[in-house]
Every structure is written in C-alpha cells, then in structure tokens.
Amino acid sequence: MAEISLPTGFRFGASTAAYQIEGAVAEDGRGVSIWDTFTAEPGRIKDGSSGAVACDHYHRYVEDIALMKRLGIDSYRFSLAWPRIQPAGSGAVEQRGLDFYDRLVDELVTAGIAPMATLYHWDLPQALEDVGGWLNRETAERFAEYARIVVERLGDRVESWVPVNEPNVAAFLGYALGMNAPGRRLGFDALPAAHHLNLAHGLAAQALRAGGARAIGCATNHAPIVPSSPQSADAEAAGFFDLIWNRLFAEPMLDGRYPEALADAFPAEDLPLIHQPLDFYGVNYYMPMQIGAAPEGADLPFEIQELAGDFARTGHGWPVVPSGLRAFLVDLAGRHPSLPPIRITENGCSYPDEVVDGSIDDQGRIAYLQGHLRAVGEAIEAGVDVEGYYCWSLLDNFEWDEGYTQRFGLVHVDYETQVRTPKASFGWYADLIRRHRA
C-alpha cells in the first residue's frame, strides 16, 4: 500500500455501462438499440450471447449499490440507456425509464456515493440508426434534446456528467471496422461519424450546462501509440493512427481545432460547438497500441499489431503496461496547457476468475490495479492534475463482441443465478480506499 502515493481528496470510483449490466431490454417501454440488433445477428458475438439479461441490474440495483457502499467508493460512473428514455431516439419520453434512473440516483445519494452519469455508452436507439445513425448530423441534434430531458429530471442530484463514452471506439469499431454495433465497415467513410460524435458531445454539454449541470467532462479511450519499428513507413503509420485515435477527439474538445492534416475534412463552423468548457477530462486507459505500415493493397494505411515485449498479459491477452498510463498523462498535459483536471474514467482488466470454495483469489487483477494506481501517482508527482480513478468494472458483465467470455469485475457474477461474489480485488480496493482516508 505504501507504494501508491495519491493526494488528499483523491476520489475513488467504479464504472459500468447500461447495456452491459442492466438487462430488462424489453421491459417498461424500452426501445430497441443497435446492440439488440447487432447481437441478434449470427456470428457477431463470440459466445452468441446478448445483454438481454446481463447482470439484471435493472432489478438488482439496490443490492449492487449496497456492494458499492461496502467497497467505499466516492463516486459511481454509470450510463443511461437512451432507448429506455426515448425509445425512438426522439419524440415521446418513456417516464418509466426516467423513473428507474431517478430511483438509482436517489439510492446512490442516500448511500453517500456521488453519481457520474454517462449519457451515451454506445446503445443508440435503432430507429436513429435506421436513418443514418452517427453518419447523420441530425443524430447529434437529437442527442442534445435527450440531454435536456435527462438533466431536467436528474440534474439536481447527479454530481458529474459525461456526454459520450469513447467516441473514437464508437466511430471506428462501429462504423469503420464493423467489430461493434452497428457493424458497418466503411473505412475512412466513417469519418463523419467521428465528427458527429464530437458534435454530440459539444451540443449535449451545452444542454447540460443550461440545465444546471455542476460538472461536465468526457471519457475518451486513449493509448500511447508505438511504431512497430524505427523504419519511416512504420513511424508514419503510427503517427497517422495517433492522429485519428487520440488527437482527432482530444484537440477539438480541448483546443477547438482539428489536427491540421484532417482539418479540411470537417466543417470548421462546428468547432466552437464542440469546444465547450470542461470541468474534467476523462481518460479511459487499457494498454499501448503497436502500429505498423499496412501491407501493399490493404484498405487502410496502418496495421494494428500485438505489442512486442515481455509483458504480463491479462486473460484477454492484453499487455499490462502501467508505465504507458503515466507516459500518456504526462504527454497529454504537455500538449494541452489549458487541460482541466483529469479523471481516469476507466481502467481495468479481465481474468478467468474461477470460483474456488466460494471465493475468487484474483491476484492478477490486484497487481494490475496496484501498478496502474502507482502510475497515476507518478503522473501526479510529475505535475499532472489527476483527481480521480474509476475502476472498470464494478461487476462482471456483457463484454460487447466478447459476450460473457471476459470478466472485468471486482465482483463475480454467476449469470445463471445472478449471485454476486466480491473477489479478492474488491477487498484490496476497499482496503486501499479506507487507508487513503485514514
């Protein structure tokens, strides 16, 4: 414990997402989302599963908040399901959906846990996808209307807001590469989706601020980009990938501009709308990414490769590189002098996590969290203003295209019985939080 040095007042949290934990996809008027459609298509999900039941959090949120209170977290980051609130993505509001989030927020506040609400964690109403989805500028306008509805109902109790989770992942894995919903494979023709997600962030931030929101930030997936070799072709490919993965989203939000190489691809008049004042900048970090030049004739000019090196690896096969988090945070602060305080809005790992005699001794996850929290402390010592850390995830859950084959939770979930079992990492994190406050 002594190796992790974090300042007084540092906030500890945990994160989840609606489609990954709520279940109840056909209850209380919830509309169809792109993930409902995507998971119904054969071959899309590794184990053929869906989030139809997931962790049944919709019915078990009181039990789950009791676990959060036992964990001792300061704040809980969750997402609201847009199709639960506006089944068609516009027009009529489903009051039963708002009522659920009203109850959830009240329960959190009663437990002394500050709510951080994410408006969009990838579950776009299918009705909007049917008319273009994020390729359609009007989707960003509909998103601002949805933000106004939500902040009017919950703004008096939600402490922090994130408009869009990981816009880069939503744009590129959903529209460019087809790995996530809605499963389109458009390559560079997906760039309008990236711009409209940036615009949605800005328009929603405006709507939230007008509705009295207290703190508004973001949650962008970021990674240090490593060229596969010193060769110029690999270095150029890595630089280009860094531009579209990291800078295409950070620079409009933080600096009000697009990277020069891509500036002509987007309407300049939208930049003041995207560049809204932020109270915190959220970083979702998992690992560095190695990029090389693509083979001749490939559709894209870069190739995503397995990171070379003797790294420990998670059950997902991802390399464990805490130093990458420190390096990225220092670089981000150096690039953006007006950077607001940073929150690590996601960081975590998957392991098999077998139950043995009623317990789960996930020492790999403890080592992972310890290493990354130590890296956060080192970034703070280097002058970076990091004010909080949210572990991904509170619960094992539906892990997108991997289905239920990956377990990221501090709490093990038996998907047949819905029994929750805190893992050893849960106790470790709780002890860290308790010691930090002592």
Write the layout of secondary structure elements.
Elements: E1 11-15, H1 18-21, H2 34-39, H3 57-71, E2 75-79, H4 82-85, H5 95-110, E3 114-120, H6 126-129, H7 137-154, E4 160-164, H8 167-176, H9 191-210, E5 220-221, E6 225-227, H10 232-255, H11 271-274, E7 281-284, E8 289-293, E9 302-305, H12 322-335, E10 342-346, H13 363-381, E11 386-392, E12 411-413, E13 420-422, H14 424-437
Helix pairs in contact: 3-5, 7-9, 8-9, 12-13, 13-14
Main beta-sheet strand count, sense and barrel state: 8 strands, parallel
| C-alpha end-to-end distance | 13 Å
Low-pLDDT runs of 5+ residues are none
CATH topology: TIM Barrel
Strand order of the largest sheet: 4-3-2-1-11-10-7-5
Mean pLDDT rating: 97
Number of domains: 1
The level-1 CATH class: Alpha Beta
Based on secondary structure, the structural category is alpha/beta
Tell me the number of strands.
13
Number of helices: 14
Inertia-based shape: globular
**Helix share of residues?**
25-40%
Q: Which band does the percent of strand residues land in?
A: 5-15%
